[in-house]
Specification:
heterodimer; A: mainly alpha; MetI-like fold; 2 domains; 10 helices; about 85% helix; B: Rossmann fold
């Protein structure tokens, strides 16, 4: 391997490691209080100490995120079909959905909690609310992106509406569907945490709230890092599925 | 019985301001079995509109259209269409694209696959059957589109400026190839083009259309020997027809 090739590979990780070391040194030399900003090593130690708790709370938040995300898919896909393929569906549903999208979903969190009680359901419902729109809009756009010439081709073969949907519209909308999903999954984690902030006895949102109220800042940082990792893993899981499903460039 | 007979066919559009636009006709036209009919005309003369009516993709505003003696109301697999844009599905391989009609029409699988392989070999694509269309050149894509149109063994082939999106060299190569395939497969065809040489090279008959609303202003038989080759264009008959068609299309414009 040539020198530039090596440099190309190691420069980015080196910069990040240097930043972490800088953080550590700054915290120690400036004697920043623990409750304000803990050093990376302190956070790591807290993460090790609280590993079982972090894991169980992570599982709760991941579960809420995934369930809400899947429920949002189950709701938005049929609605997207209705909007894309029926003039009446579009006239009646689209204004209502656009209005709903303009409501800041975070503001609904206390209400949703009031309605669904102290279960995991209010969190799932908030996740559904934040995921629903990006998936819907992208799938509708995907269905509508089908070139007219391709529809003409299918019609010239006498293809049924069903065949046109499954052979043409669905595959053509697949890239847009995944774009919507990747936007939604990032929102989904945020939705779950907000739900847990409002009322919860478990989940990473709850853990962050509890640890900061007890000035256990290192644990709060560890929980935030766990959230970030969950977000990244879910995003890449979708990207993996996308690469399996979309093997062409649209 | 003629493949197609049109009588007094017109097409009127409403444009986006709600104004009536007379796009076509009236058109009277009879196409006999086994003949290759080329249509040329200035752009916007309604050639493609005419093709869409014949394909059954759009309804005519008035007039009667018969296909094999029965009223033409909807598309049929017996009529194959090759569009200007290859319209290959990017998520399917070349072979799967060619087999699309078999899939939609539920044709027997093995026989269709054999025919697809035969057509792909005939058009020199047999090494690319498992490639995605994005890997092919423009000319190869259009050849694959030709194979797809021929898969269900249509009796009548409609070609809507099939080489319009290709560069001049590929276009010439493909028109000669189509001519060769024509002699081999022998079928009725209806070709829309803006390229006069291409129209003469391929056709048994050339229809010249007027400006909008498009009407057929001339119907010239092309009595050139087949198979047609690169040399056909040097034949005096070829040049004579070319001049005649140019006169018909551009003549009136020069005066105004």
């Amino acid at each position: 391997m040539t020198f530039p090739a090596i440099a190309n590979r190691v420069v980015t990780p080196l910069v990040y490691i240097a930043a972490l070391v800088g953080w550590e040194v700054l915290v120690r030399t400036l004697k920043i209080p623990l409750w304000m900003l803990p050093a990376p090593t302190t956070i790591a130690a807290a993460a090790m100490q609280w590993a079982p708790e972090l894991l169980s709370h992570s599982i709760v938040t991941t579960r809420e995120t995934i369930l809400g995300f899947l429920l949002a898919l189950a709701l938005s896909l049929p609605l997207a079909c209705l909007i894309a393929f029926s003039a009446w569906g579009r006239k009646l549903l689209y204004p209502a959905i656009l209005a709903l999208q303009s409501v800041p979903k975070v503001a609904l969190a206390p209400l949703v909690t009031l309605w669904f009680g102290f279960t995991e359901w209010p969190k799932i419902v908030i996740v559904v609310l934040v995921c629903f729109f990006p998936v819907l809009v992208n799938v509708v756009a995907g269905f509508e992106s089908v070139p007219k010439s391709m529809l003409d081709l299918m019609r010239s073969l006498g293809a049924s509406q069903r065949a046109i949907l499954w052979r043409l519209r669905v595959p053509a909308a697949l890239p847009a569907f995944f774009t919507g999903c990747k936007v939604a999954i990032t929102f989904a984690v945020i939705g779950a945490v907000i739900g847990e902030f409002v009322a919860a006895q478990e989940g990473l949102g709850y853990l962050i709230l509890m640890s900061t109220s007890q000035s256990q800042t290192p644990l709060a940082f560890a929980a935030i890092i766990a959230l970030t990792i969950i977000s990244i893993l879910l995003f890449y899981a979708l990207e993996f599925l996308e690469r399996k499903a979309v093997t062409w460039t649209p | 019985m003629p493949v197609l007979s049109l009588k007094g066919v017109t097409k009127v559009f409403d444009d986006n301001r709600g104004q009536r636009v007379d796009a076509l006709g009236p058109i009277d036209l009879v196409i006999d079995n086994g003949s290759f009919v080329s249509v040329v005309g200035p752009s916007g003369c309604g050639k493609s509109t005419l093709l869409r009516l014949i394909a059954g993709l759009d309804p005519a505003t008035s007039g009667t259209m018969l296909r094999y003696g029965t009223p033409l109301e909807s598309p049929t697999y017996e009529v194959g269409i090759i569009f200007q844009d290859h319209v290959l599905f990017p998520w399917l391989t070349v072979l799967q694209n060619v087999l699309l009609p078999a899939d939609i029409l539920s044709l027997p699988k093995q026989a269709s696959e054999k025919r697809a392989q035969y057509l792909l070999e005939l058009t020199g694509l047999k090494d690319f059957v498992h490639h995605k269309p994005q890997m092919l050149s423009g000319g190869m894509k259009q050849r694959a589109a030709f194979c797809r149109a021929m898969l269900a063994n249509p009796r009548f082939l409609l070609l809507d400026e099939p080489f319009g999106a290709l560069d001049a060299l590929t276009r010439e190569e493909l028109s000669l190839e189509l001519s060769r395939l024509w002699d081999e497969l022998g079928r009725t065809a209806f070709l829309i083009t803006h390229d006069i040489e291409e129209a003469i090279l391929l056709g048994d008959r050339i229809l010249v259309m007027s400006h909008r609303p498009g009407r057929i202003v001339a119907d010239i038989p092309i009595k050139l020997p087949r198979p047609r080759t690169m040399r056909t264009s040097q034949d005096p008959v070829f040049q004579e027809i070319k001049q005649q068609v140019r006169q018909l299309i551009f003549g009136r414009q020069d005066v105004s």
